Amino acid sequence: MSADLELQLLAAFILDLLLGDPRKLPHPVKSIGFLAVNTEALLRKYREISLRVAGILAVVIVVGGTVVVTSGVLWLCFSVHPLFGVAASIVILYFSFAAEDLARHARAVLTALEQEGLQQAREKVGMMVGRDTVAMDKEDVVRATVESVAENTVDGVTAPLFYALLFGPVGAMTYKAINTLDSMFGYKNERYMDFGWASAKLDDIANYLPARLTVPVVGFAAWLMRLDGHAVFRSVVRTARQHASPNAGFSEAAFAGALGVRLGGPRSYGGIRQTLPYLGIVEDDCTIDTLRKTIRLMVLSAFLFLASGVFIRLTVQGSVT
């Protein structure tokens, strides 16, 4: 299987760009979420177990279960026929990538801003972000969308690609399990402060390298698009670590530098106003054209990340043989 992984990755990536997220088909991530919800409900019944220990057990069960099931499905498919196994690998990889789905959400906001009006744009961006959208003006909507695309470039594209390049379909789906757990349990509130600790920490560890490797790829993509590639690195060095997340600031600062805008700043969650640090080194406004460039920058960065990874794999394999 490893000898064909490069072609499988390319096929899966093309499928994602052509089809996006299959709305009417059962998605493995939904199954992971279902397992996580039921695991949490089961573990919370055991009062004698501390919430932090219960959260650790939840990670072991969900992530371990994902590894076992994915490996078992692939083993079974390859046992039936090698081509069946390759097809299963491509499908699993396809389910792991979300470049087109991310672009589709951003394009929906863009279309709403251009054709439908601000209220519809607020509703569309509300599907991408957790902040309050009811009082957003046009620039707020664009900025929120750009931030979501920039952050999720790692979660939805480069990180699963990174682990797929290293460990194949099992690696990609294992990362999706880790990321899903963080999105469900990784909240710093009373319910999940302890139970979600392990999920949040593991997600931080899993995203550490992909977030940083995404930066030079965004820089190169910006240069190809005739944007300011040098500003990508200056923006990351100066502002990335101001973000509350140890990883999200890298991709957001990289996009801010490439696009020549400033991200972050004040926003509201549940009616509570928060003032977050700004990312980026230029204070230009976010416009509709900024959003168009953001979508193209994300897709090009995804392709370059895959191409670079495949090239490195082939180079290493050639040097070994």
From TrEMBL:
It is found in: Cell membrane. The keyword Transmembrane helix applies. The keyword Cell membrane applies. Belongs to the CobD/CbiB family. Its main location: membrane. This is Cobalamin biosynthesis protein CobD. InterPro entries: Cobalamin_biosynth_CobD/CbiB. It comes from Prosthecochloris marina. It is a multi-pass membrane protein. GO terms for cellular component: plasma membrane. It comes from the Bacteria. Pathway: Cofactor biosynthesis; adenosylcobalamin biosynthesis. GO terms for biological process: cobalamin biosynthetic process. Converts cobyric acid to cobinamide by the addition of aminopropanol on the F carboxylic group. HAMAP family: CobD_CbiB. Keywords: Cell membrane, Cobalamin biosynthesis, Membrane, Transmembrane, Transmembrane helix. GO terms for molecular function: ABC-type vitamin B12 transporter activity; threonine-phosphate decarboxylase activity. The chain crosses the membrane at residues 53-76, 82-99, 297-316.
